[in-house]
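Is this the right way to post structure tokens for a design question? Let me know if I should format differently. Anyway, here goes:
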């Protein structure tokens, strides 16, 4: 293992967020997972909930939360050369276990009851899905995506 390969596993950044989240507890849980796995930020698009505290490790002190009014505002704020990877059950989605995470990425999750909007799915640069018998809670799905990114990038870097 070379010094360069180890550094390559730590390069880049990522963020994760939910489009039209229904419950604040899912945002709190996702926030905690984002902090645990080293996300640079989290975000919400739209809002269907009254904000409340559900972040038990105070991840808000370490990982910023950005709020976007709608999908257009989110898309306008995207960093340069950073693909959006949607997590959704979709015929175009690649199984997560076969996905190679980009160095820079923004992971977009759908609402608990409706998933990603058709427009969001259309705009995503890539779609992944977690193979499971039933739908997963959005914060759990996001945590799995973050774990998979961390695990595969550490493995590929030789950590």
């Amino acid at each position: 293992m070379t010094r360069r390969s180890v550094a390559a596993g730590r390069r880049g950044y990522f963020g994760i967020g939910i489009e039209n989240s229904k419950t604040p507890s899912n945002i709190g849980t996702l926030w905690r997972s984002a902090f645990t796995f080293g996300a640079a930020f989290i975000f919400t698009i739209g809002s269907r909930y009254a904000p409340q505290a559900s972040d038990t490790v105070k991840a808000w002190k370490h990982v910023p939360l950005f709020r976007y009014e709608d999908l257009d505002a989110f898309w306008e704020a995207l960093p340069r050369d950073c693909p959006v990877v949607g997590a959704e059950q979709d015929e175009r989605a690649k199984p997560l276990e076969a996905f190679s995470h980009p160095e820079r990425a923004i992971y977009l999750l759908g609402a608990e009851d409706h998933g990603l909007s058709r427009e969001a799915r259309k705009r995503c640069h890539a779609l992944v899905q977690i193979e499971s018998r039933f739908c997963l809670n959005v914060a759990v799905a996001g945590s799995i995506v973050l774990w998979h990114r961390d695990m595969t990038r550490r493995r590929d870097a030789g950590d």
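Format looks fine. Someone answered above. Worth noting: The CA atoms of residues 17 and 43 lie 4 Å apart. The helical segments are 3-9, 24-36, 71-76, 118-123, 138-157.
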